[in-house]
Known about the structure:
Elements: H1 8-12, E1 18-29, E2 32-43, E3 47-51, H2 58-65, E4 73-78, E5 81-82, E6 85-88, E7 91-94, H3 97-104, E8 107-110, H4 122-132, H5 138-151, H6 167-179, E9 185-189, H7 197-212, E10 217-220, H8 224-230, E11 233-238, E12 241-246, H9 248-253, H10 258-267
Parallel strand pairs: 3-10, 3-11, 8-9, 9-10
Antiparallel strand pairs: 1-2, 1-4, 4-5, 6-7, 11-12
The structure holds adenosine-5'-diphosphate and magnesium ion.
Magnesium ion (MG) binds at residues 58-59, 189.
Amino acid sequence: MTDxxxxxxxxxADLDDVMVDVRGVHKSFGPLEVLRGVDxxxxxxxxxxxLGPSGSGKSTLLRTINHLExxxxxxxxxxxxxxxxxxxxxxxxxxxxxxxxxxRTHIGFVFQNFNLFPHLTVLENLVEAPVSALRRPRKEAxxxxxxxxDRVGLADKAGAYPRQLSGGQQQRVAIARALxxxxxxxxxxxxxxxLDPELxxxxxxxIKDLARTGTTMxxxxxxxxxxxxxxxxxxxxxxxxxxxxxPPAAVLDDPQHERTRAFLSKVL
Length: 268
Ligand code: ADP
Ligand code: MG
């Protein structure tokens, strides 16, 4: 069963270097149309920062990329693989839950509120998914976990519980956990919005480090300075569409649309 409209010829066309491909995506909640034809292409190794006012559909867009929300029209692919559906006999079929879960292991998601497992140690937070979802040997998963904790500056916290950590430390653990599955792309939904101001920098530094080493990322944030420094592309969304996108210098310093100017004048 499917209610998705797809131009099949499009699915394989024009995918050179494109890691995340969002085409004509529509999404409604009841009568409320939240995404009204979103197009977005993210190249491998690039960082895309998504800006936009509250309610413009940013979180919903990230959730459709992860197939936490189904789209009503259009399609999304990651590394050339259609998300949530497979094609056969010229038709689209919804994937089974277990196949969706498998696809989701390629997509790391970092939430505003960290969402760590409170009853597990930091190390166990990182080991759980690789062992249960990818059937990695525990020893190997632990080695990877320790390496990633070292990378986010938390090697000494492996045995701690989330409640014993600051918000900034918890978010760095959440980033390490997202990396533990070896994802093709990392999605961040306002990763610093729940943090005290003095803790924002340490989390942004970790994301900057990932950017330097070629991790493909889509980051929803209001941190304009971060966007200017790290983004390859800045996307401005409003009312469920991409209003404009381009290099940071273009979108942030010379916006072409009145809605972008109005938004930036409030946040800059
Ligand atoms: P943003 O992240 O840009 O603030 P969202 O994607 O969270 O925007 O939300 C866009 C719109 O969709 C808002 O009007 C929000 O209330 C609505 N919305 C989001 N999720 C749901 C849902 N599960 N059910 C109904 N409405 C929703
Ligand atoms: Mg949001």
